Predict the 3D structure of the following.
Amino acid sequence: MSTVLPGTDRVPGATGSLLRSALRQVATTVLVLGVVVLLWIAALRVWDVSPYVGKTPAEVWTSLFGDADSAELRAEIWGLLQQTLVDAAVGFAAGMLTAIVLAAVVVRYRLLEGAVMPVAVVLQTVPLIALAPILILLVGRGYAVVALMSAIVVLFPALVNIVAGLRSVTPQMRDLVLVYGGSPSTVLLKVGFPSALPALFASVRIAVPGALTGALLAEWLATGKGIGYAVVSAANRSQNTRVWALVVAITLTALLLYLVAQLLETAVLSRFGRAAVRR
C-alpha cells in the first residue's frame, strides 16, 4: 500500500512529462547552436571577410584542440572564464535580490511606485558605458563596481516581470486571505510570491545573459580582469584567433547557463506550480 505524505500531490505522468520537456529544451539548444554555426560560416562568405580577421568554426576548433599550444590556451580561457563567472554571479545576485525587494515594496506600498520605477527606467535607458566612469569614481574598481554594473543590466527587466507576477493575485484570493485574518503582507508572502514563480523564473532566464553582459563590460571598463578585458586586449594585439576563441567560450557558457535556468524553471514549476495555484 502506497503512502502519500500530507500536502503532497502525485501527478500521473509528471516525471515523464518533465523528462520530455527537458529533452526538448536540450534539443532546441543544440539546434540553435547548429543554426548559429551555419550563419557564422555564411556571414564570413557573404561579406567576404578577410581570413586574417574572420575565423571559421573549424579554425577556432583547431586553435582550442588541435594546435601545440591548445592545452595552454584552454587553461588560460578557463581561468578567465572562472573570473567572469564570479563577476557575473555577483551582479546576478545583486540585481535579482534588488529587483525582488523593490518589487515587493512597490506592490505592498503603491505610493512608492512613482519613486522606484522612474529611477529603474533611467538606469535602463542611460548607456552603461556612460555610467561607468561615475560608478568607478564612486566605488572604485573592485567587486562593488562589477555588482553595480551587472545589477543595472539585470534590474529593470527583472523588476517589471516580478511586479507583474506579484500583481497577478486575483481579488478573490486576496479577499479570502484577508477574511481569515491575514494582512496585506501575508497576501504578498503566501499568495503573491507563489503566484509570481513563473515571472520570477522568466526574470532569471533574462538575467543570466544580462549578468554576463554586465560582467564583461565591467571587466573591460573597470577591473581589467576576466574575458571582458582579455577580448579587448587580444583585439588590440591583433590576436584574432584568440579573440574568436574567447567569444565562442563566453557564448557557449551563456547558452549553457540559459539552458540550466530553463531546466530549473521546468523542474520547479512542474513540482510546485500547480500546488502554488491551488493554495
